[in-house]
Amino acid sequence: MVEEDRTSLAPTEIYGRSDEEQNGPRIWRRKTEQPPGNCIVYSLTIFVIVFAVCLILSLIFLRVSKPEIEIASVSTRDLLFGSNSTSPYFNATLVLDISIRNSNFGAFEFGDSSVTVVYEGREVVGETTIGGRRVDAHKTVRITGVVIEIGSFRLLHSRDLGTELRSGFLELTSVAEIGGRVKVMGRRRLKKSVMSCTMRLNLNGRFIQNLLCE
């Protein structure tokens, strides 16, 4: 018996049910839009960072400090003295080199200023004036050859002067006060610098020793 060809009416592909498709694996896609809340947080963060940077820069560039002034070197000439107990005296010429250092981000300008020499921290024995000038930002200006004539004729009380002269040393202090303006980013700030340098005049050696500036 010849076997007849049969055509199958069943579908060649099997499709799952609709409920099975919903429970199948899901494909996740990255969201292209950020929620409004995140944008606000990012904006505030950027604002805080910019504000902090501006604050730090202002503290660095707008901070104004006092220029530093000190005696770089000092020499003597024409020294005369007498240690006689009845009429002790001394006369000398001091030649100073003064340095002024400006560590600010702006120039420092000052007018004429006085420099005095004090004997034993009590009485002025010499005085002179240095001319005003300009010290650029982060620069040091050296004023050379500042001459001060000192002498005991200025002393009102020289009771212990003879003893000091016989010891061979005189304790002196040089004092200066310089007031000026520092210009930073268009603003001018008043600043005053004070110099106080102690020194010992070696009478026999005719030189200055133990120079110390505060």
TrEMBL record:
Q: Which residues cross the membrane?
A: 40-62
The protein's superkingdom reads Eukaryota
Q: Which UniProt keywords apply?
A: Membrane, Transmembrane, Transmembrane helix
Q: Per the record's keyword annotation, is Transmembrane included, yes or no?
A: yes
Enumerate the residue ranges of region (Disordered): 1-30
Q: Which GO terms describe its cellular component?
A: plasma membrane
The answer on whether this UniProt entry bears the keyword Cell division reads no
GO BP, one annotated term:
defense response to other organism
Q: What is its main location?
A: membrane
Cellular localisation: Membrane
- This protein's name: Uncharacterized protein
* Organism per entry: Microthlaspi erraticum
